[in-house]
Design a protein that fits this description.
The protein has 390 residues and is an alpha+beta fold. It has helices at 16-24, 49-52, 62-68, 79-96, 116-119, 122-137, 149-156, 172-176, 189-197, 203-208, 211-218, 222-229, 259-279, 312-329, 365-377, and strands at 8-13, 33-36, 44-47, 73-75, 100-104, 107-111, 141-146, 164-166, 245-256, 282-293, 298-309, 335-347. The strands form three sheets. A five-stranded mixed β-sheet has the order 5-6-1-7-8. It has a four-stranded antiparallel β-sheet with strand order 9-12-10-11. It has a three-stranded mixed β-sheet with strand order 3-2-4.
Length: 390
């Protein structure tokens, strides 16, 4: 089916984490609020619209957010509450169409092409979804309606919060052309700087620019970028997206400077990542380590695992080798953030017990025991001695 025959919604919850906190605690309503880690070294996970009036945005360092607003209210994330609200919201989506592509806890594409005969026009369906979400969760959402995913996503951001925006092909020039070029996927901060140097600032500038100006920036993706600026996108909505990676990371109040401390934190992160892989019944074929120095320079290193694994020991050993290799090239470095992730995921396969010395689905019986204890008594109920602070 071509994009011209589709009816696509992009549904985006408004300041989701912050809105859940304000919903659950009336004392927080109307106040500049951020959800994020408990220290100045953390970053903002979500900002209320009152906080955004001060220029505070997600991913901003917490210290910077507090400098911008001296009466800022900060609360720690409560992921279980956000997941519960998300579950209710996605259940509503599925009442209108089975074609739901979740992008995160608070954002999804919906293909309602086949739903219009039952529920009415795409705009009517969007209105019904907004009303149902408000009634069931007491949260607001913004919806973009278009014939493709690209334009629907752009549209949902044009009238926040609590907006409903329809952008169809006959209004592309009017609605899209004046927007900043950064609304087009794939145009980040550095690309934007290069575009500004050739006087490309808006979507219209990008759509009408000469190939000779764009090719040094986008190379073989020049035509694809121009198509995006013209509102063209043939990607279908893909329901039940498989996870591409599972990871855990931590930003530290004090930079890690001792290798022993780094390895301890690396083991903690490996435990969290491996436990998440086991819970999802997945094994990782690749292990990645993310390292951010005190000056915010960020590095990633990765290596393959054969066979794929979700065992703590296997994940940790690979991560430890990657960190050791990085440290050998960066002696004396101080680390602000560490992360451990698994990618190229595949269903965990039952291993041969005689060939793998008691390994089960890529992990050990000890991992199973630890998982069972933590599920019953909490995540801090048991841990490896090496992960304890000295």
């Amino acid at each position: 089916m071509s994009s011209a025959e589709r009816s696509i919604l992009h549904v985006d919850m408004d300041a989701f984490y912050a809105s859940v906190e304000q919903r659950d605690n009336p004392d927080l309503r109307g106040k500049p609020l951020v959800v994020g880690g408990g220290s100045n070294r953390g970053v903002v996970a979500a900002a209320s619209y009152e906080a955004r009036d001060f220029g505070i945005r997600s991913a901003m360092p917490m210290a910077e957010a507090k400098r911008r607003c001296d009466h800022l209210v900060q609360v720690k994330p409560r992921m279980s509450h956000y997941k519960e609200a998300s579950k209710s919201i996605f259940a509503i989506f599925h009442e209108f169409t089975p074609l739901v592509e979740g992008l995160s806890l608070d954002e999804a594409f919906l293909d309602v092409t086949a739903s219009v005969k039952l529920f009415g026009s795409p705009a009517t369906i969007a209105t019904m979804i907004k009303q149902r979400v408000l009634e069931d969760t007491h949260l607001t959402t913004s919806v973009g309606v278009a014939q493709n995913k690209l334009v629907a996503k752009i549209a949902s951001d044009l009238d926040k919060p609590d907006g409903l925006t329809i952008v169809m092909p006959d209004s592309y020039r009017e609605r899209l052309d004046p927007l900043p070029a950064r609304v087009i996927p794939g145009i980040g901060r550095e690309t934007l700087k290069r575009l500004q140097r050739i006087n490309v600032v808006t979507v219209r500038d990008l759509r009408t620019a000469e190939d000779r100006d764009l090719e040094p920036i986008f190379g073989r993706f020049t035509q694809k970028t121009r198509d995006r600026a013209s509102g063209l996108d043939d990607r279908p909505v893909i329901p039940n997206r498989e996870e591409k990676s599972i990871s855990a990371e931590e930003t530290y109040d004090r930079d890690l400077s001792k290798p022993a401390d780094m390895e301890r934190e690396l083991l903690r992160l490996s435990e969290r990542t491996a436990a998440r892989l086991r819970k999802a019944a997945l094994g990782a074929s690749t292990v990645q380590v993310k390292i951010r120095r005190a000056d915010f320079t960020t590095y990633t290193r990765q290596r393959s695992l054969k066979p794929p694994s979700n065992g703590t020991d296997q994940i940790y050993e690979a991560a430890r080798e990657l960190l050791a290799g990085w440290l050998s090239s960066n002696p004396g470095a101080k680390i602000r953030l560490l992360g451990v992730g698994g990618s190229k995921l595949a269903p965990a396969a039952q291993a041969d017990l005689f060939e793998n010395d008691g390994m089960r689905d890529g992990h050990s019986a000890i991992d199973d025991t630890v998982d069972e204890i933590r599920q019953k008594f909490g995540p801090l109920s048991v841990g490896r001695a090496k992960t304890l602070d000295r």
